[in-house]
Amino acid sequence: MEIDTVVTANGIDELFCGYNAYRDVISQGESAVNQLMEEKLENELKMMKAVNMISSEFGVQILQPLLSEEFIKYAKTVPIPEKITDSEDLMRKHGIRKLAKDIGIPEISYNKRKKALQYGTKIHRKLLKTR
Question: How many domains does the chain have?
């Protein structure tokens, strides 16, 4: 079986305060959260452009619907408290978790702290060792 298209959820942490860095700035107010969001989005868009360039060399198209202009515009209308509550908020992404619950996703999938695949599986550590 040959894969020619991959759909990702890139952008979810940037747009819904999934990173720990959001906990560090939430006490500075919503403008600080929004500024960090812009920085994270800019970085993610650059990174995904590079990833797309490489994947296209292998005939694989990567789709990132959460990084579309339309979705980014929508996500920015979601109130910050639906994303992160305070500096002690270890779960974050509350609106996304509620949506998952509402559409019947199993609780184990939406009600746990998340780790990026590359860290949770230790792929990242192994990649660093191969350099």
Answer: 1
Which of left, alpha, beta for 11 (phi over 0: left; psi -120 to 50: alpha)?
A: left
d(CA 75, CA 6): 22
Q: Which two tokens stand for residue 47?
A: 């990174």
The conformation of residue 46, written as its DSSP 8-state character, comes to: H
Q: What is the pLDDT of residues 9-20, one digit of tens each?
A: 999 999 999 999
Exposed, middle or buried: residue 42 (CB in 10 Å: 0-12, 13-18, 19+)?
Answer: exposed
Backbone angles phi, psi at 7, to 5 degrees: -105, 130
Q: Is 43 helix (H, G, I), strand (E, B) or coil?
A: helix
> Global pTM?
0.83
Q: Retrieve residue 55's tokens.
A: 């994947």
Alpha helices in the chain (DSSP H): 12-15, 20-25, 30-57, 69-75, 94-102, 107-110, 117-120, 123-130
The 10s digit of each residue's pLDDT in 38-71 is 999 999 999 999 998 999 999 999 999 999 999 9
Report residue 109 CA to chain centroid gap: 15
